Amino acid sequence: MSARDWIEKDFYAELGVPPDASADEVKRSYRKLARELHPDANPGDTKAETRFKAVSEAYGVLSDGDKRKQYDEARRLFGGGGGGFRPGGNFEGFGNSTFDFSDMFANRGGAAAGGAGGGIGDILGGLFGKQRGAQAGGTRPQRGADVETEIRIDFVEAIRGATVPLRLSSPASCTTCHGSGARPGSTPKTCTTCSGAGVVTRSQGAFAFSEPCRDCRGSGRLIDDPCPECGGEGVSTQTRTLTVRIPGGVTDNQRIRLASQGEPGRRGAAAGDLYVRVHVTPHPVFGREGDDLTLVLPVTFPELTMGATLSVPTLDGRVSVKVAPGTASGRVLRVRGRGIAKRDGSSGDLLVTLQVTVPSRLDGPAEEALRNYAEVTADHDPRAELTRLLDEGQRG
Question: Does 191 count as an annotated binding residue?
Fold first, then answer.
């Protein structure tokens, strides 16, 4: 990305967020726009595809803390049009040349900028990819941007793990020119005007003034015969299918990193990473608490009162669980080893909550039996302990 891009593009406007937006606000806005503008959702819509690329570029800068800090600093220094600067980074009084601050402050440290570190020279060196004695950013390798996408899997797949195909439309190294930007059979040439530096520098007294090379537009290379697929960029939007291995035990909203599967790097640099955010569809029966599975099991009053052996479902079949006589409703029973497998080879447990079900209607014999039970247990007051505690509280 050129210095002019940093200064003139409003990445905050692209994502529809204010400059003081939090990282979460930036992420939410990007994910919303990416879903709306994704090429798969807008087949044949070139405007949506162009916006999708712009939104992805903006997110690539604003989601990276260091890049965002550098971008904000560049906008503060150059984008406001004040202090002798105009948008585009030109210094008034010196024509169309760009004042080379990285040369001026490269060795003056914090004293030049009133802070620690390399001061303003380091800031501009980081932004524009140029440090004293180094080539311009146009010819330096640039790591590819990270990419984020989303998938949805069901509850059992999340517990046991799964291999799922992922269809992804994103910038990728052009398959026609293999990233060179030149038509197959031809090779980019080093720009003779700037000797591959990407900038032309001239001295005037104690100052050095630099401007992007007009012949190569700051890239340091000349492509006489551009690739017809990518127009000389070396990168094109492509749809590819990846096979993603989802590890067992993944949680809802967890991100999985696929190294070097993001956007391709420029000029031989490494590719960025792909982050896959996993959404898990809830199960109609089972829940989850960490590495334990949870289950609410309906039981009858006689089963809790007299005790019983119950058949309990698990993800791997059914198991028998003994309920002791006099067990209260709401009691949680632990079935060990029937939860989620852990990395150390052990497994979590299945937590079974016993919940009494009350019949909505009783037939004649059942109702009569229940009335007889109520009569023979009339001396038992289930609320006696509650009454005692309330009385003690009032006396205290």
Answer: yes
